[in-house]
Description:
The protein is α+β, with helices and mostly antiparallel strands. Helix content is 25%, strand content 26%.
Amino acid sequence: MNRVEGLEKVTGRATYAYEYTARDIAYAHLVQSTVARGRIRSIDTGAALATPGVLAVLSSDDPPDLAEDAEPQLRFFQDRTVAYHGQIVALVVAETLEIARAAGEALRIEYDAEPHDVRLRPDHPARYRPEKVNPALPTDTGYGDLAAGLANAAVTVDATYTTPALHNNPIEPHAALAVWDDDGGLTVYDSTQGASADRDTIAAVLGLPAERVRVVAPHVGGGFGSKGTTRPPAILAALASRAVRRPVKIAVTRQQMFDVTGYRTPTIQRLRLGADDKGRLTAVAHDVIEQTSTVTEFAEQTATPTRVMYATPAMRTTHRLVRLDVPTPSWMRAPGECPGMYALESAVDELAHAAGMDPIELRVVNEPDTEPESGLPFSSRNLVACLREGARRFGWDLRDREPGVRRDGRWLVGTGVAASTYPSKRRPAEASVTIENGGFAVRIAAADIGTGARTALTRIAANTLGVSPDRVRVEVGDSALPQAPVAGGSMGTASWGSAVVKACEALLKNGEHGTADTTEDVESDSELARHAFGAQFAEVRVDTDTGEVRVPRLLGVFAAGRIIDPDLARSQLIGGMTMGLGMALLEETVVDERFGDFLTDDLAQYHVAACADVPDIDVAWIDEDDPYLNPMGAKGIGEIGIVGTAAAIANAVFHATGRRVRDLPITPAKLV
Ligand code: MOS
């Protein structure tokens, strides 16, 4: 089955936020602060407003009326504080984008700058303990006697790993078109991972009842988390549109995106592991330091996968934050699990080496019977099967026992392995299905952010109804449809699919029409540890003269419940692994400590993996029959692909060279 909207997409007929039209559109341009901390002393709009075609300048000179309790990042122009470099300090609205941009440059903004601090460091004096980490998990956890576990261990690892700030780079940067109708209703064509939640946030920020706002987003060119919350264009387009009484469009440029649509926090992670002479863990400690902003708290749950992975008699996980003069970090594919598992799975590899054990065998002997920290039974857990199947497919038994021994001309060659995990949850959703024109129309405010959600839901509906998929039409991406959670946390298909199945079952019972609300089903889900698992294998070649690392082979084997659509699953998993390869070798948002801004703010400088970087990525999965998840038996697959990839590559670099790089990305300079 092809993607149902595939033809529309490849022929350019699929409409994205910025491509919508309305009568008499005006264009707005974001103007950003040029200091990282301080106050706006004055804004001289004279030259900007005198520019022909300029309609309005919005700024803190005339604060718009916004809800007091709204998300602080969306309360624009309420005061004159500058909290980070690149903060939106004004919005210029004009007849054309070019005029808006030119007038933005003509604004004269004076600042009273104050000294800023943008560098995350372990000994930071302002380090503090957040109350919770995302979404509402305990900050610090622990059990057993950690000191004894470490003291009595036959082998130990005590290592600190660092990851840089990373930025989501969806192909489609954030954009919105806002249109007010005559009786005060607002329509926003937005690029969002969830029309229902976006509508609710826009309404709340503007102080409107939710039913007066509609969000339309049928096609979204990627998000990875950066579109999981309402971003500046939606709110600012609505404000500007109200000010000039015309529809207003805003496109965030690629460079602006680095400041105003979130990023993954840098991390400093200390891992301490102990094991007995059989490689069985005696202690696991994972202590994380990460950053947030002075605007609002974002506490990434970096150490949480450690609470899930391995059997140990003693464990501790902690998170500390530092508020810096930076934009607020946000969601980026597998927030928490991705950087956390880079550190844990690197440390496990170091432990295997120290213990003289094969890293797969070390993981197998530490396989837990129940979730280590909670003691809950797993709904299903097939990490060992993934490791074994991956080893078989990858040819792991041919691996050299010692690192740094295999040479091919100038290249050192090595292989590495790491585990993956990601929670499998679902959220309440509503859906409807109606017989129309001899077919079935399924409606749900789900989001297709490039994942193929429409296609997966078409299959799910067809399967439940017992009809061929071509008789099912799925409508998503509009808050006017039955409300649904965001495409996030790898929960989309599980959440939306549960509602679609239930609506289809209602139709089969009633005849013409079926509706569903899964709130009670989700609330009554039994208490179990539900997670997907996987094993990642990498082969690397390291140029001994230049330090260049190439990855000729990546293999991921996953256990993620029932796979609903093999082509879509393959794409998601390969996409995640590709992003993980970028994290391992290429991606890094460099911070300019002097000026306090992000230096690498375009695709020429922020390097994402390109085709030539990924010659051979393969994906396989273990068939998993898990009845404790949802009617489809499916676990999420959107995020687990990125989890563990960077560790597998870093471990392969160690195996190739005998050198352990604990600071991502592994650039040539760190190897020569
Ligand atoms: Mo994803 S970071 O859960 O949108």
